[in-house]
Amino acid sequence: MEETESNVAVKDFLQDPPLSNSYETAMEALSSLITRPKRGIQSSIGGKYGKLDRMHVYLKILDLEEQITGLRIIHVAGTKGKGSTCTFSEAILRECGFRTGLFTSPHLIDVRERFRVDGLEISEDKFLLYFWDCWNRLKEHANEDLPMPPLFQFLTVLAFKIFVSEQVDVAVIEVGLGGTNDSTNVIKEPVVCGITSLGMDHTETLGDTIGKIASHKAGIFKPRIPAFTVPQPSEAMDVLNERAHELAVPLKVVQPLDQRHLKGLKLSLSGDHQFTNAGLAVSLCKSWLQMTGNWEKLSQNDKQGVNLPEAFLRGLATAHLSGRAQVVYDSSAKCYNSSTAAGNSSGDLIFYLDGAHSPESMEVCAEWFSSAVQERKQLPKFVSSSIDVESKKEVCENSYVQYERCTTQESNKISKKILLFNCMEVRDPHVLLPRLVNTCASSGTYFSKAIFVPSMSTYNKVTSGTSSIPSHISSRDLSWQFSLQRLWEKTIHGIEPNVELDTSSKFEGAENLPPHEFLYKDASHCKPADGNLTCSTVISSLPSTIKWLRDCVRENPTLRLQVLVTGSLHLVGDVLKLLKR
Ligand SMILES: Nc1ncnc2c1ncn2[C@@H]1O[C@H](COP(=O)(O)OP(=O)(O)OP(=O)(O)O)[C@@H](O)[C@H]1O
Ligand SMILES: [Mg+2]
Ligand SMILES: [Mg+2]
Prior knowledge:
Elements: H1 22-31, H2 51-61, E1 74-77, H3 82-95, E2 100-103, E3 115-117, E4 120-121, H4 124-141, H5 151-165, E5 170-174, E6 192-195, H6 203-206, H7 210-217, E7 227-229, H8 234-246, E8 251-253, H9 273-291, H10 295-298, H11 310-318, E9 326-330, H12 332-336, E10 348-353, H13 359-377, H14 389-395, H15 400-407, E11 414-421, H16 429-442, E12 449-452, H17 479-493, H18 517-520, E13 536-538, H19 542-555, E14 559-566, H20 569-580
Parallel strand pairs: 1-5, 1-6, 2-5, 6-7, 7-8, 10-14, 11-12, 11-14, 12-13
Antiparallel strand pairs: 2-3, 3-4, 9-10
Helix pairs in contact: 3-9, 3-11, 4-5, 7-8, 13-16, 16-17
The site of one magnesium ion has 2 residues, from loops.
């Protein structure tokens, strides 16, 4: 999910931003660096330089070129699991006592999520300091030959600026898209490189075979610099090996982390696929520690090297990344009127959030969701280990105590699994939705309803955590959501793709919200023969959808809605943002 880069009309921004509201001003400035993705069109921002050459010029202007090598970088490419692998690696090295920088993409709510120093998002003040410094200096030098950088290039330069200025001991850098031509590939001499799971994504840019995709990812290999990867399809592995051989890169394949190494602790990121990412992170960190002469100290109590150092375990058990297999218990309904214990007259609303948007990740997302809801079924009491306590606190900050009281009053509830879905039009829902449905079905998980909504975030605005949320987007064209809905109904009812289904009948009333009974009634056995699509709905606004779900559980104390939000990180970010309010 990276920003597409193309011709940019850079507005003139004030050299000295007004003090008030300057964070929003910075967001405005950043947004001017985005342009709309155009399907199949390779972008170029003009000027006389190629993309990576231009990156080098930007770095020179900011006096960063030399200093980047001092960042002792871990550079990670791959189709899926980059962010998770980088986050585990950062947490491990921080726990080992190093000052860390972490650059990931995309962000969910606020652009500052992309830049962490010592495990924490950079503060607004520091962000503004570095942001305007880079912005103004690049602006001064911008001309026809050297336009301002497109968004992702700017963010990459900014990450280097932040990490150099903050004097981190290690910078963990996630590739934006591909590898060879990625803005982050200005890194000449990383300490170690990682390639996460490879699969089919961004085929329009990277090529339509796994071999071509692997070739782009292997573009981050540097002569003789060690590299690690996870088990890959053989076509991809061959390409990685070939490239490694050419550059004399010692490339090792790392097996998923063996759970027994965790000594009873749990990985802080859920889902079986995270053992793959964690295994890779462990090897990257171990190699980094060896290359920087720090491994001996850490492993001196364990000469055989059989056990993971305690600091590794702490990192693996605490690394945090939102929107990847995240469970958020929405307690707003309970907090609403729970000043007395008897106030717990509401059903449960639980969000399962995962930003999967490629076929392989849709499958791992479905596996995770199935096991998370089934794990829950077996629990005698409400308090579930799969529920993120931090999120409970966040969502219901002021009423945490009341919440704890609510949890003791658990009774038998009727669980309904609901899908809340959107995906970008460049993705192929004909692959994503059947993968999701079939993987869930194979472990006995069935959705009673699906809701298709447009995301609130648009691709032409970088937002902050405090940006306003549009309350109403009724004029938005919903034809994409209606086509997702038709596809959904065909998928779950096994209807031939060429059969026409009518989605013109909508619910009457404000913003076409369905009546609450829509969620209670199980209609999955009814085929949509009469033109009524009984298992799904399109709702035009996400805020109204959340409010509607909350109203449903408030009205019906016996209901437990388990809502899987997936298909787009933008959608996941928007839902998280709404739940926090
Ligand atoms: N090893 C993996 N194999 C398959 N799918 C994975 C793996 N790791 C993560 N995923 C899926 O990909 C989603 C994104 O995970 P993560 O942020 O770690 O990957 P990423 O490569 O940074 O993705 P993006 O392309 O969005 O930057 C997760 O929510 C999960 O659904
Ligand atoms: Mg991606
Ligand atoms: Mg990522």
